Amino acid sequence: MKKHLNDAQKKEYAYYLTLVSSVLNGTEPQLPYENCNLDHIRQISNDTRMDAIFDEAVLMLSKKYSVSDKLLSYVKNNLNHWIYIDTMMKYEIESLLKCFDEGKIYNLPMKGYFLKEDYPNSFERSISDYDILFDINDIDRIKNIFKQNGYKFLQNDDQQYHFVKAPFMYIEMHRSLLKKNDKNYSLLENQLEKAKVRDGYSYSKEMTLEDYYIYMLLHSAKHFSQGGIGIRMIADEYVFYKKYSDQLNQKYLSEQFEKLGITLFEKKLRDISLKWFSKGSEVKDFDDVEEYILLSMTLGRLDVAVMSEMERQRVNTKTGRKKSRFANFISSLFPNKSYMANNYSFVEKMPILLPYSWACMWCRRIFIDRNIDIKKGFNNRTSYTDDDVSYFNYIQTEVGFDVK
Q1: Other C-beta atoms within 10 Å of 316: how many?
Q2: Do the Cβ atoms of 401 and 292 come closer than 8 Å?
Q3: Would you say 340 and 352 are in contact if contact means Cβ atoms under 8 Å apart?
Q4: Distance CA 129, CA 138 (A)
Q5: Is 6 buried (19+), middle (13-18) or exposed (0-12) by CB count in 10 A?
Q6: Of 273, 275, 299, 297, nearest to 44 (Cα)?
Q7: What pLDDT is attached to residue 284?
Q8: Sequence-ordered list of residues with C-beta below 8 angstroms from that of 187, at least 6 positions apart, any chain
Q9: What are the tens digits of pLDDT across the range 370-396?
Q10: Looking at residue 354, what is its pLDDT?
Q11: CA torsion angle 355 360 366 371 (round to 10)
Q12: Of 200-214, 217-231, 269-283, 328-342, minimum mean pLDDT range
């Protein structure tokens, strides 16, 4: 498992961060260092899903630096692509929210819907889906609205209903912000009732800035502790805090951070975001947590996510002892009732159907999702070492997370 960047990679990431900073702050981009390969920097932007920001930076850079015709043509076309996607997605989501208003259906858009608007230009913050909180009592009317608007209902579990519309709309309707088995569920319960109706809408709501920030951090914390968070989430932290810091109730936030166990995590993310993106900042080196983030692509690494989940599953919650790696490998192929019940609620009511839920899960992955890579899956479950586990646990403790 890769844990560190080499010197050349550190130099590339450091320069890439200056380009992102220039776009977020509206300043001129720094000239490339000697022998800088902009195609390598472009690949970083692709891996971190921040293509549009790189495109903008290169266009600004081209005014005072000789950028190859090939790269310049690429970024112009790619930027137009992201602007088009953003425009169409915005039209689609607002059309749905208008339908919810007409149907008198309360709703609460989350995460990316608002984050996009905090960036200098909304197309700079790509999203793969929209998340919307709703009242489960409205699900039949909601399904009908989606159908009338050309969406296909995919599936649902105890927390989410999934809708899709070609070529790029994917919407997750959430009946709760967190899963009921989440230890912090009660602290963010009833947000739909607590939230206020937004200006310009009759039934679409928004959380307070404080609760939104808390939810944003909990979402980041979940990814950080499972497989990692990428540069984009640090950019989210920067643009949000830069825009709203003087409006936040810091006393309330401190109290909630303490209850949620994310005081150190919030400070670490905020410090990193300021180090990387503050106007005029220049990154010279990275600590271990920063390298963990830089290696985490967009929403974490699959090998890290598999390892962390495998290690969590090894612990017997009753005795505290760990299963053997072989026994745990078999358990990963055929998860326990508690795990399966998250996606197949019938298992909770009828445990005898647990084997049937395994068949459902594997049939879906093989024939519907088609996201099985047997060789990679085997390697991810068996190739990590005790040193890898120790390193991962060390990173978690650095941000205040309990790894016991």
Answers
A1: 10
A2: no
A3: no
A4: 21
A5: exposed
A6: 297
A7: 85
A8: 214, 256, 259, 260
A9: 777 777 777 777 889 999 999 999 999
A10: 94
A11: -100
A12: 328-342
> What is the pLDDT averaged over residues 40-62?
97
Residue scoring higher pLDDT (328 or 72): 72
CA–CA separation, 13 vs 41, rounded Å? 7
The strand order across the sheet containing 169-174 reads 107-110, 130-134, 169-174, 160-165, 152-156
Residues with Cβ within 8 Å of 61's Cβ and at least 6 positions away in sequence, in order, are 19, 29, 31, 32, 67
Q: Which residue type does 104 have?
A: K
Instruction: State the Cα–Cα distance between residues 175 and 144, nearest whole angstrom.
Output: 17
Provide the mean pLDDT of the chain: 92
Q: For residue range 308-345, what is the model confidence (pLDDT) as tens digits?
A: 988 887 775 555 667 677 777 777 788 888 888 877 88
The mean pLDDT of 51-55, rounded to a whole number, is 98
Q: Find the mean pLDDT for residues 91-105.
A: 98
Whether the per-residue pLDDT at 181 is higher than 80: the answer is: no
* Other Cβ atoms within 10 Å of 188 Cβ, number: 19
Q: What is the pLDDT of residues 264-298, one digit of tens each?
A: 999 999 999 999 999 988 898 999 999 999 999 99
SS (H, E, C) the chain: CCCCCCHHHHHHHHHHHHHHHHHHHCCCCCCCCCCCCHHHHHHHHHHCCCHHHHHHHHHHHCCCCCCCHHHHHHHHHHHHHHHHHHHHHHHHHHHHHHHHHHCCCCEEEECHHHHHHHCCCHHHCCCCCEEEEECHHHHHHHHHHHHHCCCEEEEECCCEEEEEECCCEEEEEECCCCCCCCCCHHHHCCHHHHCEECCCCCCEEECCHHHHHHHHHHHHHHHHHHCCCCHHHHHHHHHHHHHHHHHCCHHHHHHHHHHHCCHHHHHHHHHHHHHHHCCCCCCCCCCHHHHHHHCCCCCCCHHHHHHHHHHHHHECCCCCCECCHHHHHHHHHCCCHHHHHCCCCHHHHCHHHHHHHHHHHHHHHHHHHCCCCHHHHHHHHHCCCHHHHHHHHHHHHHCCCCCC
Pairing of strands 130-134, 169-174: parallel
Q: Tally Cβ neighbours within 10 Å of residue 14.
A: 18
Query: Which structure tokens are listed for 229?
Result: 């968070």
Say if residue 133's pLDDT is above 60.
yes
